[in-house]
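User: Could you walk me through two proteins back to back? I'd like the raw sequence and the structure tokens for each, with a short line separating them so I can tell where one ends and the next begins.

Assistant: Of course. Protein one, sequence then structure:
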Amino acid sequence: MNITQTFYDSMASQYDKLFLDWQATTEEQAAILDRIFQEAGFDRTARVLDCACGIGTQAIGLAKRNYSVTASDISEGELKEARERAKNNHVTIRFENADFRALSETLSEQFDIVIAMDNALPHMLTSEDLGAAVDSIVGRLKPNGIFVGSIRDYDSLLESKPPYSPPYIHKTEKGQRVSFQTWVWNENLYQLTQYIIEDEDSLQVSKFTCEYRATRREELTKLFLAGGCRNVSWKFPEETAFYQPILVARKEPK
């Protein structure tokens, strides 16, 4: 099991604590994605693959908007959590365990839309792995289908290489919850440690560690163009209200 699987398996039961209100977040992010899909010419008959679904934050929100959603992830722990949350939200989603570098090994069909949100692609620590992920994703798109994915604004972060992220402080019924990350840089790679501190009846501290590769937008743009996409563009938070830059790439028609 690699460090990414361990990170998400370990954090699966606590991932929702990164949000003030996870349930509301599913609806807010689905609304953002819905607008992007419609701007690209798709309606809710589109078939969607969330290839880095985590605990279902985007997949469940989209399913509640009546999209046909298939969701995959490398983490069995997060898939277990996602299945339970889908059940609790009364939506039907097909879940599969799959590495997004090799989606065709699990998923034979193609989709109108593939998404990978919340900085999933920068888990690829080499340009070769990232290229394999892009080729795999484009391979699961129908001709003229679109990929929608978000990453951190690494073009900006690489200028300063900050050692930590600002904390999120959420008031709870019994006190407060604080979450933040520390980042240890090695050129364009960094080790991320996620802390979740719950200061309620008693003090509880959880800690999870993972690795990322700071990926510039130009690199991803070139990979999607080389992989068979056109009209690769970026949408920024001031336009979308999403917290990270979003890439939209359309696969070439036949």
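----
Protein two, same layout:
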Amino acid sequence: MHDLLDTKAAAPRIGVSPGTLENWRVAGRGPKFIKSPGRRGKVLYDPADIEAWKEANRFQSTSEAEAA
């Protein structure tokens, strides 16, 4: 298993700010994440999940992206 990344480390791998990644997490738009138990649990990302999300969001054209 890869070392897990916090939001601050994961965001640049996607090309967005940590705040955008947090907003996407709330909206269910970004990559899968792991949350440790508890109300104030840490949110962590597996680099493999980031790469899978990037691959799933790769398109040939804007029309292909709009259809997705």
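The first strand starts at residue 5 and ends at 6.

Let me know if you want the two compared in more detail.
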